[in-house]
Amino acid sequence: MHSTTPARVVVLLSGGGSTLAALLRAHAEPDSPFQIVAAIADVDAPGLDHARRAGVPTAVVRLRDHPDRAAWDAQLASTVGGFDPALVVLAGFMRLVGPAMLEAFGGRMINTHPALLPSFPGAHGVRDALAHGVKVTGASVIEVDAGVDTGRILAQRAVEVLDDDTEASLHERIKQIEQPMLVDVVRHLTSPTPPAEGDPL
Ligand code: GAR
Fold this sequence. Notes:
With 201 residues, the protein is α/β, with parallel strands linked by helices. It is built from six helices and seven strands. It has a seven-stranded mixed beta sheet. β4, α4 (99-105) and β5 (109-113) form a beta-alpha-beta unit. The two termini are 16 Å apart. The relative contact order is 0.15. Bound molecules: glycinamide ribonucleotide. Glycinamide ribonucleotide binds at residues 15-20, 47, 91-92, 94, 112-114, 123, 125, 175, 178.
C-alpha cells in the first residue's frame, strides 16, 4: 500500500486521446503511484472527453487566442503550473512547446512518439517510416527538450511493419505497445524511491 499521496501528473493532448485513456486506466488502479490531475489541449480535442468522463479537470489553451507563440507558451505554462504537476506528459500533443514550458517543466516533461527515434521525428512519424520502407518501427518515450523529438530516450519498443500496412493499421499496432510502455515509464518516474538498505525506518 502507498503511504504517500500519488504524484500529480498533467497530460497534454491534441487528438483522440487513446493515450490519455490508457493513462487514466492506470491512474484508476489501486495503489497507482500517480494521479492525472488535469488534461490540457491546444485545440478542442475529442480526447478531452476521456478526462471529463473520469471527473478529471480539463482546459484548452488555443494558439489562435494569443497574439503570438510566446504568449501562448506562457499561458500554457501558467495553466499547467496551476495544477502543480510533478510530471507533465505529452500524449499526442501536436505542437512544440516553447521556452516558458521548458523553463517551468524541463527535466520533468516527457513525450511519446510513434517511431524509433532518432528516426522519423516530427508530426508524421508513422507515415514517414512507412514511406521510407522500414521493416521495423516502433515507439519512443523521451524527455522534452527544445528540439523536435531530440530529448533523451527513456524507453523504446519495436513493431514489425507488415507488407499490407496502411498508416492507420500500423499506427494502431504501434499504440498497442506504446501505451503500456508509456504507463510503465510514468509509473517508474512517479514511484516513491524505495528506502536504501540500512536507512532508518
Ligand atoms: C500517439 O501515437 C503519439 O505517439 C502520437 O500521437 C498519437 C496520439 O494518439 N504523437 C505524435 O505523433 C507526436 N509527434 P491518441 O490521440 O489516440 O492518444
